[in-house]
Inverse folding.
């Protein structure tokens, strides 16, 4: 990923315009868009990769793709009332800063 020409070659092999995309990725407009979307993602609760946000539902990690697929197919095994009940359960411990 640190060699733009190697990345451009890989992009070309997939049928994309590698050099054009590399140039665009370095533009100030794209960098600003990345900043805006990163801010929006962290504000929505995204904290790692991969994270998928669908409506108000956050799916995190590769192991959640199965649940994401079920959710998108309206076959989610979790029901809204279950999620609400679980959100009331307090953790047995949590990290906090002390003075």
């Amino acid at each position: 990923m640190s060699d733009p020409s190697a990345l451009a070659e890989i992009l070309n092999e997939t049928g994309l315009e590698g050099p054009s995309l590399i140039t665009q990725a370095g533009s100030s407009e794209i960098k600003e868009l990345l900043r805006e979307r990163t801010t929006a993602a962290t504000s929505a609760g995204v904290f790692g990769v991969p994270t998928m946000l669908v409506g108000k539902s956050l799916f995190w990690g590769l192991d959640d793709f199965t649940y994401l697929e079920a959710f998108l197919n309206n076959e989610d095994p979790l029901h809204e009332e279950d999620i609400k009940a679980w959100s009331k359960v307090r953790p047995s411990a949590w990290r906090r800063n002390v003075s």
About this structure: Helices lie at 4-13, 18-25, 28-43, 65-72, 80-87. DSSP finds five helices and two strands in the chain. The longest strand covers residues 51-54.
